[in-house]
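Worked example

This section walks through a single chain of length 406. The input is the sequence exactly as stored; nothing has been trimmed or padded.
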Amino acid sequence: MIDEIVREGARRMLAEALQAEVDDYIARFSAERDEDGRRLVVRNGSHQPRQVLTSAGAVEVTAPRVNDRRIDPDSGERMRFSSAILPPWCRKTPKISEVLPLFYLHGLSSGDFVPALGQFLGSSVGLSGSVITRLTETWKAEQRTFSERDLSGVDYVYLWADGIHVNIRLEEHKLCLLVMIGVRADGRKELVALGDGYRESTESWADLLRDCARRGMRAPVLAVGDGALGFWGALREVFPTTREQRCWFHKIANVLGSLPKSAHPGAKKALAQIWNAEDKRHARDAVASFKAVYGAKFPKAVARITDDLQELLAVYDYPAEHWIHLRTTNPIESTFATVRHRTKITRGPGSRAAGLAMAFKLIQAAQDRWRAVNAPHLVALVRANALFVNGKLVERPDEHPQPEAA
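Given that input, the structure is written out below as tokens.
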């Protein structure tokens, strides 16, 4: 009973929207008349009823028809009215068309759509595996357009970089996705670039960074990533002025990998004293304590901290409100969890192009849920080279002393 009420409501809303669209179209051309004074655009009955799939289920719609006797001066042919709400070829509302690819991305195979959604929506009208396949082809075109867009009008102040390896069913080698997410000057997070490369090599990263630079991307102020990436060598070549911040999430895993499991509880607490220190001095003191406790027995674990200490503590030279965002590559890690889930279900995409398109659409969908960094107004000050000491602003760019006039 409730389902019928919902579908009836959807049918009425769609019918009313179509009627309003036709009324507006006729009203716009009411002044155009023939030699006998009769209107050239008038209502002309209704089309044959047809089933349309909506989010409320399948409903029967009778669309109004328009008789347009105007002549196109360019082509010499009769003008025709075509509904933007429900085109003649449409058998499902636009929202359904948008949802179908996302269902496929999140694990529903094309062969399962008809029985699954048909039962859920009450009808399988307009659904088929080939429809889903055609829809997903648009992802590849969207991903190519995204990879060619102009970057000169956007300023990315912070940058996260990481990679993910995806099995390819139809190829011998794995697909390595190289992804960069940036923070705009207004504090919003955004996907900057997505490409494929050979493993996570320096040259693969350099190709991606060079392409971004060619399309107008400015050098970020700070980049965050795993210390094992070839990304750092590429960054020093393409954007040598960008500072480096190592990801503490990866660093902790690397340090614990060099310690026996019995030492993990104490080491985790000691490492937390470093990355969660209130300022750089306390962080260095915590490093000295870690070295004193573990240096004699586990020099490799200590070296993983001391060798990258400058890059691990770079975060203290930026606003304290941003530390929670800059200590790790979490924006990428959390998004990649979705990509890994999907590629595990499908046992990997069938081709490299499909893998890139799949990752692009998943990251694009996740991007809508990303929140801006804390204190977004401070991001512009970071770009303007404001001085922050232990997270506190001590000098604005406009506070530099000006030379006196001669």
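What to look for: The longest helix spans residues 2-28.
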